[in-house]
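call fold target=HlyD family secretion protein
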Amino acid sequence: MNAQTPIRSDTFLATEASVAAAPRSRLRRARPFLALGALAAAVAGGGWWWQVGRFDVSSDNAYLAGDIAPLGSRIEGDVAELLVADNQAVSAGQPLIRLEDQDWRARRDGTAAALAEAEAALAALDAQAAQQRAAIAAAEAALGQAEAERVRAVAGSTRSATLAEKGYGSRERAENGVADRGKAEAALAAAEANLSAARASLPVLEAQGQAALARRDGASAALALAENQLSYTVVRAPFDGVVGNRSAQVGQHVRPGQTLIAVAPPPARQWVVANFKETQLARMRPGQPARVVLDVSGEELTGRVETLSPATGSLFSLLPPENATGNFTRIVQRVPVRIALDRPEKVPALRPGLSAVATVDTRDDPTAPRGPIGAAAAAIGLAR
């Protein structure tokens, strides 16, 4: 058998050392590049924080809000029919609940009859007033005729008396002329009295007409009120939305002001209320851009700061704090900020009350680049 050649230990150690030295050599050659990359990353990150990050103000105390309309009955009655189901989408003016309307229809018909009676009475008085004006015109004509007859009788009496004095006419004829004159004057006085009486009756009829007109207007107002009350037997949606919180049941007796159902607004009529700390409001202004991340889907929406509350949220609470007491504890207050969303109708999952995280860009120039590269380039430009 051939004898095995022994491997020298010093040769093995040299080989092992050369193998271990190769990675270290490559690492030494890569160190400058790693340091340069770390430096670039630090510069980019620092530039982004200096130009963008430090101006982002964020709060997870934010939620979606909307004008939810709790609808109730404006009259007393029994629920006759429920026209919608829970969580059903409705449009503005759509009937939601109908109450029994027999009694209200009867009241409407009674006021309509009273209005018709008042209008008939007013028409009758108008006709009487017109008739009285015609009577006044006839009395005025009769007065003119009586005046003409008196003038004729006076002239005839004077002529008959003159002829009788000269012997050309008979005494009887003269006496008849005097009698005719007396009758003509009496007829004139009677015509004047009739005219005065006719004229005096007209204001009475006109006053009665005004009273009848007032009764007609009152009956018309009562009919309008009855029509309104009849329309209140149907509860309608005030705007497009989704119904919920339905508490009405068929046959239930309801009273005015009792809440029966609620209508929540669609996504297009919702916004975000973010409660920022008072230490975050120094640079916040209306119009600044905002980003909102919804907890329900993780989707990010854009928007703008619309308004800031005139007071902290604690002052609008049921029991506002009284800082003058001896057990005062200083805490950071929060101020509600309303954020209007851009095109919220594209997110059907929006519901009032859902949680969100809101971030506001408080930079002086919100249109400046937000990315790390752009921010780093801006920082380098400022450094130069």
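return ok
The helical segments are 9-51, 102-165, 171-231, 372-383. The CA atoms of residues 125 and 207 lie 10 Å apart.
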